[in-house]
Amino acid sequence: MQLQVKTILNCIQHFVGFVYKEVRLVRHGDKAKRIEIRLEAHSGVPAKCSKCGRPAAGYDRQKERRWLFVPLWGIDSYLLYAPRRVECPEHGVVVEQMPWSRGKSGISIAMMWFLALWARRLSWLETARVFRTSWEAVCRSVEWFVRWGLEHRELVGVQAIGIDEIHWGKGKRAESFLTVIYQIDQGCRRLLWVGKGRSKAALLRGLAALGQGVVAGLRFVCSDMWQPYLAVIAAQAGQALHVLDRFHITGLLNQALDRVRRAESGRLRAAGSPAGQRLKKMRWKLLCRGGRVRGRARVQLGRLLRAKLVTARAWALKDLFEHFWTYRSVWGAGRFLEFWTWRALRSRIKPMMQVARTLRAHRELMLNWFRAKGEISAGAVEGLNNKIRVVTRRSYGFRTYRAMELALYHNLGRLPEPPCTHRFC
Ligand SMILES: [Zn+2]
């Protein structure tokens, strides 16, 4: 007995009420062009209404349609079937339910599964090229996959969330930002929601999408100092401990330091001083954490500090702040914060003074970091942000916001997957 393709098909995906009638190889000259897999209804099983799934009386038969199937040995494969129409007592004359097909799509469910999973590993364009289909077909497959996942995901046990804004697109207009909500619990880190804009309204939409129950059950909310977010979090999730994310605060200090460096480098170069050139090249070394600067960079940094430049003083302030995170007690951290802001405000370095004022204004939220007692992981939000960047960058070919949104849920949402009888990839 020889192995037949039908045997494989019956083994990996058997559709109740249907049989594989024949498998044909269509050739073009001496080249294999496509494989056609013809299905037929099982004579003893009545057709089912595609709306409600209940068996219904037959009405008529439509002409044969075809659905793109998972390619076999690199040969395009199609399922062929002439759908029956049924007369459902409730839904009238409708086309029958076909377990391999969803709606009007000409792509079989198995193939949508296949394309959707590959679209996580490759860019959508590459996926389309490798499997000789269109970008739109990949997009539709991912959309089906994601929609199913969102409908079936469970949002129980969400205790900690991170809220952040992500830059996407060009310029600094409001549309160029996305608001994202992550779950950052120890056992489960995933993207819960993404939406356009970074206004109060955007975050309110996101929280509404999670539902009252989830928001009321939150214990920790982690965010940056973006004022609209702070206001919404205070109003909507007042019971949760609101923590300012460490990496955002470090970012704030780094930005201030960089402003100081740029201004001073410009001043010195205008005056013809060689220190100006040197300073221009030191950007990354300065932004590193003090203890991590080694070797030649360490020597350069030492020279900079001895040169009594403003940048050096700003760097020292930034480096000093690292100490803040080492405290165990809220009290100790609070004392240190006072000391640091006092020093910064007397530094006469404008950007650093600005940071000091901002930090002082958010003192309680800053100290919540210590009240959370290590229950919030420092790197969770940053890690997810980096992953988002990987997705948006790889998907350089995303033409629309919608496609990008789908890709983010698809890659970072940890969504449940639609059921399947066989994993093709
Ligand atoms: Zn029906």
What are the defining features of this structure?
single chain; 425 residues; alpha/beta; five-stranded mixed β-sheet; four-stranded mixed β-sheet; 12 strands; elongated; binds zinc ion
Uncertain parts: none
Calculate the mean pLDDT score and round it.
88
* Proportion in helices: 40-55%
Q: What is the topology, as strand order, of the major beta sheet?
A: 10-9-8-11-12
CA distance, first residue to last residue: 28 Å
List cofactors, ions and other ligands.
zinc ion
H/I helix tally: 17
User: How many strand elements?
Assistant: 12
The dominant shape is elongated
Share of residues in strands: 15-25%
Which value, in Å, is the CA radius of gyration? 30 Å
Sheet with the most strands, sense and barrel status:
5 strands, mixed
Q: Spell out the helices and strands N to C.
A: HEEEEEEEHHHEEEHHEHEHHHHHHHHHH
SS-derived structural category: alpha/beta
Task: Please provide a written account of the structure.
This protein has helices spanning 5-12, 109-121, 124-130, 135-152, 200-210, 212-216, 227-236, 246-270, 274-280, 283-287, 295-306, 310-321, 330-345, 350-361, 363-371, 380-394, 401-412; strands at 18-28, 31-41, 57-61, 65-72, 75-81, 84-88, 92-95, 160-167, 177-185, 188-196, 220-223, 241-244. The chain has 425 residues and is α/β, with parallel strands linked by helices. β11, α7 (227-236) and β12 form a beta-alpha-beta unit. α13 packs antiparallel against α15. The longest helix has 25 residues, at 246-270. The two termini are 28 Å apart. Zinc ion binds at residues 49, 51-52, 54, 88, 90-91.
